[in-house]
Design goal:
Length: about 475
Amino acid sequence: MKKIVFMDFEELKKRNQLIAEEIKKRNNFVIVNHHDADGLCSGAIIAKALERENKKFNQITAKQLYSDTIREIKNSGENYIFVDFGSGQLNLLEEMLEKNYFVIDHHQPVKSDYLFHSNPFLFGFDGGKEVSGAGMTYFLAKELNEKNKDLSALAIVGAVGDMQDYEGELTGLNRKILADAEEMKLIKKEKDLRLYGKISRPLTQFLSFSSNPIFPGLAANDKACVDFILNSGIELKEKNAWKTYSDLTKEEKKTFTSNLIVYSIENGFSEWKAQNIIGETYTLLKENPKSPLRDAKEFATLLNSCGRHGEAHIGLKVCMGDRINAYQNAMELLLEHKRQLRAGIEWVHEQGLTEEKAFYFFDAEENIKEEIVGIIAGMLYGSNLVSQKKPIIAFARQKDGLIKVSARATDDLIRKGLNLGKILRETCMELGSDAEGGGHKIAAGCRINLWQQNSFKEKLNKKIADSIKI
Ligand code: C5P
Ligand code: C5P
Ligand code: ZN
């Protein structure tokens, strides 16, 4: 077990104490959270914490904190708490909201000495992989009230939703949160397969539907999947019901997993890609064993199914504990979300991507919703369309006609020095004021005007090529 040194955690704690004291003095809040899984977990954690302090609040979910978003929410309350975004927009917030706002975030921050701002980068931690927006909100919540330790499981769902386990397990400050969640008996960690649908998909579909990664020869080929399962000595059904991976015995899981790794390498996977199939998984012990909420990854996908499709209130209710109406609604949204992801991936397979000097590129126009084009871009690393050697840049059309840009990279590229968030922010600044962007080293986004696309791509090609030296 690696030893973790929480060098500057005391400083982060002090900042949170300062913010917590100030929050206790004020009332009538507006929580503004991001629309993805981490954003909803962040929003739910702070909502629960405010509820426990008997504070009044409204909640707003936004796709992104652009200047026009800030203008729209201005005057909707007395005090604003921005969670899972805001660190990249501190200058805009200062200009537009004066002093009645708090920012709890983990994106790469702009320079500012604003005190009601909590961000891991200010204290020597990497917000790209060591702690998510939900994790940062959780640390603040704990300063508000020790009772909020029961929100640690949501902070883990947020981190997994942001794929902070991309090196095989959660690291850094996320481990501290995990220790709280284990102590509270909310989460169990174990080394296991990291494919989607361990609980929700019958074994055959578990393999044939897998899109991250896609298994050549098994994808969309039920007959081959049945052969694979039977050859592993596993029955497809138990008492007339289709078995899922989670129904298998320990021994069966072991055989299934090792056979799948051998199969993947024999069918062209790099060692990296095959290894990536296994890693630490996080089980939510208080959830029904048959519910997707039982697995942190599936919980996060369910939240994306709500938040990224304009139904954040449903996801927030699920985070706050609703397992009846909101849960049923979310399960329906999950089906539609997964359908759209599959259709999007198929669309890219049919249309193909182009390989530019420094990145892979596709423009989905109106064929993929801008809210999920980033997820689809990231999932392509699980296909044979692209290698790990270049980032993926995807375009989709926003309703206002602007281009939404989503960018995704791999940990290999990050180690070479790539920082997509910084590159997109700089490119946007060079393009002009209404192009706003930023994010993490590994995943970032922005919006640009149609007429800017060629110069945008040209600048990006140059900046990315410079940083990864190609
Ligand atoms: O705004 P926020 O930090 O919550 O969003 C990060 C986004 O980047 C998430 O939607 C997450 O799924 C995505 N991501 C990705 N691939 C990674 C890391 C993050 O697609 N390797
Ligand atoms: O929208 P998408 O999932 O591609 O976003 C990837 C990451 O980039 C998220 O963390 C998001 O908050 C960030 N982003 C940003 N500014 C934008 C668009 C996205 O900081 N204009
Ligand atoms: Zn986040």
